[in-house]
C-alpha cells in the first residue's frame, strides 16, 4: 500500500515539474526580443531593396511572430542571467526562389547593413537590374561574423570590390559573379585564410591576379573567368593544395602555363581557355591524377599533344581547339576509358586519326576538323553512326574514306570527306589498284562475239596481200 502511494506521488511530481518547465519556457520565449538598433537596421535594409512600402508593418517581429522566408535568426544568451535571451538576424536572402515581394526597380544596398553585426549569410540575386547600385567601400566594415557573401546576377551592381572584405577572416564563400564590378582584385583578399570558394566571374575586373593569392590556404574553388584580367598566372597558385577547380577562361592572361599547377593533386577542373598563354603543356601535369576537365582552347600553345595525357585516367573532357597544336594525335589517348568529349579542331595536326579512339566506351563527341590530318579513316562504323553529327572530321584535305570499308552507303558523303584514291563506292565493283596501273580505257564496249574479225592482221600476210593486189592490177593494164 505504501509503495503504491509513493508511486502515485512520484508520478504527480513529474507531471507538475513538466508543467512548470513548459510554463517557464513559454514565459522566456515571450520575453525574447530583438535589439532595437538591429531591428531598425533590418527595416532599413529591406526598405532599400523590396518593392513593398509596408513590409515593416507586415513583419514587425521578423524573428518570431511575423517571420519572412528570407530571414533567419539565432538566439543569443546574455552572460548576465537576469537579462532575457535575444534574437539576432544571421541570414538575409533575396532571390528568384522568393517571388513576393520583388525587388524595387531602384533597389540599392543600404549602409544600414552595418547595424547587423551578427549577420553570417548575405545572398542577393537578380535584384539590381535597372538603376545603378554601387558597392560601397565601407559596406562590410562591421560584418565581422560574415561567413557567406553571394551577390550574383545583378547587372546594375558596380563599383570596386571592397578591400575591407579581406578583414573578414570568418568568410568561407565569396561569390560576386555576373555583376558589373570594376577595378582590380584587392591584394587584401589574400588574408581570407578560411575562404573555400572565390567566384568573381563575369564582371569587368582588370589588372593582375594577386601574387599573394597563396594566402588562401583553404581555397577549393577559384573562378575568375570572363573578366579583363592581364599579366601572368602567379606561380604561387600551385601552393593551394586543396584546389579542385581553377577557371581563368576568357581573360587576357599571357605567359607560360605555370608548371607549379602540376602540384595540385586534387584538381578536377582546369580551364585556361581564350587567353594568350604559351605552351608547351607542362610535363608536371602528369601528376594531376584527379583531373577530369582539361580545357585550354584558343591559346597559342604551339606544341604537340603531350604523351602523358594518356595517363590521366579520370579525364572526361579535353578541349585544345585553336591552340596551334602540331604533330600527330597520340595513340595514348586510347587509354582514356572515361573520356566523353575530345576537341582538337582548328590546329595543324598531321597523320591519321587513331582508329582506337572508336573503341573508347564513353566517347560521345569528337571534333578534329580543320587540321592537316590525312590517310584513310578507319574508325568503327558503329562508332561513326552513334556519334552522328557529334563526329566532325571536315576540313582535313588529306583525309579520305573508303565506302567499301563500311556497309553504310556513301559513308564519305555522311562524313563530308572524299573517297580514297583508287577506291570506288559500293555501287560498283572495287578495282584492284595493282592491275589498273598503266591501263588505258578500252575502245570497245559491250560483248564481243566469238567469230568477230580481229582488229589487225600479221605484217607478213599483209605484205603478201598487197603484192598480189598490185600484180593483179598491172596484169589488166
UniProtKB/TrEMBL annotation:
UniProt subcellular location: Cell membrane
UniProt cross-references to InterPro entries, sorted A to Z: Leu-rich_rpt (IPR001611), Leu-rich_rpt_typical-subtyp (IPR003591), LRR_dom_sf (IPR032675), Plant_LRR-RLKs (IPR050647)
Keyword annotations of the record: ATP-binding, Cell membrane, Glycoprotein, Leucine-rich repeat, Membrane, Nucleotide-binding, Repeat, Signal
Gene Ontology CC: plasma membrane
Ranges where the record places region Disordered: 424-444
Cleavable signal peptide: 1-22
Molecular-function annotations in GO: ATP binding
A Gene Ontology biological process term: response to other organism
Major location (coarse): membrane
Keyword Protein transport tagged: no
Bias (Basic and acidic residues): 434-443
Domain of life: Eukaryota
Protein name, UniProt field: Leucine-rich repeat-containing N-terminal plant-type domain-containing protein
